[in-house]
Design a protein that fits this description.
- With about 375 residues, the protein is an alpha/beta fold.
- About 25% of the residues lie in helices and about 20% in strands.
- The strands form five sheets. Strands 1, 2, 3, 4, 5, 6 and 19 form a seven-stranded mixed beta sheet that branches. A five-stranded parallel beta sheet has the order 7-16-8-9-12, with helices on one face.
Length: about 375
């Protein structure tokens, strides 16, 4: 039986695997990493080609290996896939892929878990779940959506703005993806209308470490109460960059307001205005991809999972990373470390249900047996 199964080889999962090994657990003997993708890169490998490294959200370093200074015009999907692949090789972190986990069977309370995938199963004392959100695009319901005669797609399925040249595209959503799509579509020769439930929240505040801590604290308030994590933009706002200011001035980044319904020819706004559309692009975000944990019955009446940091309070065998405040790349890296430390602490002290510890409380293996690049 394994000590830990890491589910997902994105930023959080690789960070967790690195720290598990640094703290003395041996890959394949004590823990395995399972990933549903065909190759390295996590959700980044699926991002649209026009999302370049320079225009993506900050891609933070994994522990022990800097991402460096890639060409800012290179697609972020290529940069991150190459970086994650190099990381797995350098630190000897063999990842089983493609290995989509379909269920985690609880067994008896306090006993081992059985992780079931598309090809087999693993019995383990703990799991560190880092499956992120990419596999669960969120499509909000509006009356008439099924009657629309044009095309509809989600951020998840976006490839290139060029395919919409000469068309009128309604972009729904108030986040960074929506803003980037609007600018790209305008540059590609499409016309657009921007639908948001509330006025876009642009801010001139510098997105620094202090801001990041405040954002994490606000997100943690929800997860600590067992509520679903809020959207990123509702917590952070949109940075008012020069590019975005130019888009506002040009009228591209000006919301027409909230939508009441979808019509066969377009959309109807709350104020009664109707807008014709050839395409509706739903930039409405994602939800945590946690269907494979349904058998564990982790959700609270509020709809979320009651958390204390990376700890799932309903089941101490489950450590959840890439959820809530740790859904960002910086938060995911830190959460991976916290989960590895908590896992080693719990494995060494099974009676400690929470398994909490600071990193300093868990001594790494001696330097002579520590990580060596391969």
């Amino acid at each position: 039986m394994l000590k830990t199964v890491v589910i997902g080889a994105g930023q959080a999962g690789l960070s967790a695997a690195y720290h598990l090994r640094r703290l003395g657990l041996e890959p394949e003997k004590d823990f395995v990493v399972l990933d549903a993708n065909d190759g390295p890169g996590g959700a980044w490998r699926h991002r649209w080609p026009s999302l370049t490294f320079g225009s993506a959200h900050n891609i933070h370093d994994l522990p022990g290996l800097a991402v460096g200074v890639p060409d800012p015009t290179e697609p972020a999907s290529s940069v991150v896939s190459r970086y994650y692949g190099a990381y797995e090789r350098q630190f000897g972190l063999p990842v089983h892929r493609p290995e989509a986990v379909t269920d985690v069977v609880p067994g008896y309370p306090g006993g081992p878990l059985r992780v079931v995938s598309t090809t087999g199963s693993w019995d383990t004392e703990l799991i560190i779940n880092g499956t992120g959100t990419w596999d669960r695009p969120y499509w909000p319901y509006y009356p008439g959506r099924e009657l629309f005669r044009g095309s509809q797609l989600h951020t998840h399925d976006f490839v290139s703005a060029g395919q919409f040249r000469g068309l009128h595209v309604v972009v729904v959503g108030a986040g960074t993806s929506a803003v980037q799509f609007l600018l790209q579509l305008a540059d590609a020769g499409a016309t657009t209308s921007w639908i948001t439930r509330r006025a876009p929240s642009f801010t001139g505040r510098v997105f620094n470490a202090e801001w990041g801590r405040e954002v994490e604290a606000r997100v943690n308030e929800r997860t600590a109460a067992g509520l679903p994590p809020a959207s990123v933009v509702s917590t952070t706002g949109l940075p008012l960059t020069r590019q975005y200011q130019d888009g506002i001035t040009a009228g591209t980044l000006v919301s027409v307001g909230p939508m009441r319904a979808v019509t066969p020819e377009g959309v109807a706004l709350e104020d009664g205005t109707e807008i014709r559309a050839d395409v509706i692009l739903w930039a409405t975000g994602f939800r945590p991809a946690l269907d494979h944990l349904a058998s564990l019955k982790l959700r609270d009446p509020g709809g979320g999972i009651l958390m204390d940091g990376v700890h799932v309070l309903k089941d101490p065998r489950v450590l959840l990373v890439g959820y809530g405040a740790s859904a960002s790349t910086l938060g995911a890296t830190r959460a991976g470390r916290a989960a590895a430390v908590a896992a080693v602490k719990r494995l060494s002290d099974p009676g400690n249900a929470r398994g909490a510890a600071s990193e300093d409380e868990v001594q790494p293996v001696p330097s002579g047996a520590d990580l060596h690049p391969r």
